From TrEMBL:
Keywords: Isomerase. GO terms for molecular function: hydrolase activity; isomerase activity. Residues 52-82 are annotated as: Disordered. It comes from the Archaea. InterPro entries: Alkaline_phosphatase_core_sf (IPR017850), Phosphodiest/P_Trfase (IPR002591). The keyword Isomerase applies. Residues 55-70 have a biased composition (Polar residues). This is Isopentenyl-diphosphate delta isomerase.
Length: 466
């Protein structure tokens, strides 16, 4: 049995930690009274802005939060992965791969019961409880049947019987809304009721949609914060009735904030015009990028583009002159993204700009998947999937996008907090490095010395802020 002994004076320790990743939630939302349930949970407890690692996009941010390491160490530098040998860019792969997060080491090495719901790369996790979408699709990525990969086996069948199928179309796409977050929190309640995990990590996605659709300062996002807060309040009300509430700490975290944007930038069009990117017929009336036949290709992800090139000097010259580009980074200048998985060049957009993957200039030449919700086929992240199109399901008008992220700016900090009866009292509003979140969870559980994750920063309760 693991002895739980947090290192900080005054930290009583937690027998259970529940982490809610409420993507898009920021300190200003609490300051303005938009999230009273979260504010009540964290009153008098440590909370404040979170400084994300670079780049602050979904998969790198999630892996940093759950490992205590920067992308330069853990290797997740984008929500897509570029295979240099196969010359293929693949987004939103589902398998765990070689990733080891806190819930895995807490289970495998510290003997705790753990769970993780709806984080990326969960298939194959050693967590005791896990749920992640794994729809059954045909060879063209068309949905045949909704399904989720779960552990234990059969858990999704039970969830479906009680709550219906996971609403995949409300999880991403033009009709994405709060219903997916509501279902996920219901699954979290069931996970606690059935398995009573010592550590449960839950992704709550709703704010992400309206922040991209309408922008971070929009009335739509402010309203959405209230909706999510109500859902979280209901979840907390149920959690308080569980037998272990007195030994529970609740971690609230947000991966990143959003910049208001109005300028889509097209690095692949610029590379094509310069003769560095090649295209070919996609056999469906459009064009697809010929990555293997190109000297440079940009795998875009919000405000960051990873450029894979055998002609870096030529590609740099093209991209540095492109309006909307703030910086072109190479080698050690890539900072937290200085990893072999990163592009030879890492391009950062201006604060009011973002990168779209398009390489065509005439919409008639767009590949067949461009107007579909096809997250695995597109060699770049496509927020246009949040908007209905005139010709297909998805718009080809990138000017509709109003919010993006990826840069590190004061206005795009995330948020952290630790509340509940087992969370120690502490200061609020101080800015904390995202790498401190995982060691703080481990410290609360008393397992920081028992797990093999190489935390790059200390727990919030183990020393001065770094």
């Amino acid at each position: 049995m693991t002895t739980r002994d947090p290192s900080a004076a005054g930290a009583s320790g937690a027998g259970r930690v529940v982490v809610l990743d409420i993507v898009g939630l920021q300190q200003t939302h609490l300051d303005e009274g938009l999230a009273p349930n979260v504010a009540d949970l964290l009153a008098g407890k440590p909370s404040g802005p979170l400084e994300p690692s670079f780049p602050s996009v979904t998969v790198p941010a999630q892996t940093t939060l759950s490992t205590g390491q920067s992308p330069a160490a853990h290797g997740d530098v984008s929500s897509g992965e570029f295979d240099r040998e196969r010359q293929v860019a693949e987004f939103w792969e589902r398998d765990r791969g070689g990733r080891t997060r806190l819930w895995e080491v807490a289970s495998d090495e510290a003997g705790l019961t753990t769970g993780a719901l709806f984080f990326q790369h969960l298939i194959g996790t050693s967590a005791d409880v896990a749920v992640t979408p794994s729809p059954i699709e045909d060879e063209d990525n068309n949905l045949i049947e909704m399904d989720c990969w779960t552990t234990p086996d059969g858990f999704y069948d039970d969830l479906r019987e009680e709550y219906g199928h996971f609403p995949l179309h409300n999880y991403w796409g033009p009709v994405a809304d709060e219903r997916s977050s509501e279902w996920i929190l219901a699954a979290a309640r069931e996970s606690i009721a059935r398995s009573d995990p010592d550590l449960l990590w839950v992704y709550v996605p709703y704010l992400d949609y309206d922040a991209q659709r309408h922008g971070p300062d929009s009335p739509e996002l402010r309203e959405a914060v209230g909706v999510v807060d109500d859902l979280v309040g209901e979840f907390l009300d149920r959690l308080e009735t569980t037998p272990r509430w007195a030994e529970t700490a609740v971690g609230v975290v947000n991966e990143y904030g959003f910049n208001a944007v109005d300028t889509p930038v097209f690095p692949n069009r610029a590379l094509r015009e310069a003769g560095l990117l090649a295209v070919r017929n996609d056999d469906a009336g459009g064009e697809k990028v010929d990555i293997a036949g190109s000297s440079a290709f940009a795998m875009v992800d919000h405000q960051i583009a990873h450029v894979y090139t055998d002609r870096p000097t030529a590609a740099r010259k093209v991209l540095e002159s492109l309006p909307g580009v703030d910086a072109v980074l190479e080698g050690e200048a890539r900072g937290d993204a200085d990893h072999p998985n990163a592009g030879d060049l890492v391009v950062v957009a201006d604060a009011d700009a973002w990168f779209q993957y398009y390489w065509w200039t005439d919409d008639a030449d767009a590949p067949s998947y461009a107007t579909e919700i096809d997250i695995h086929a597109k060699p770049g992240f496509d927020p246009c999937e949040l908007f209905l199109g005139d010709e297909g399901l998805v718009t080809l008008d990138p000017t509709k996008v109003s919010g993006s992220h990826g840069r590190i700016d004061p206005d795009t900090r995330g948020f952290y907090g630790f509340g509940g009866p087992a969370a120690p009292d502490g200061p609020s509003d101080r800015i904390v490095d995202a790498r401190r979140f995982a060691p703080t969870v481990a410290d609360l559980l008393g397992i920081a010395e028992d797990v093999s994750l190489a935390f790059e920063r200390p727990s919030l309760f183990a020393g001065p802020q770094v």
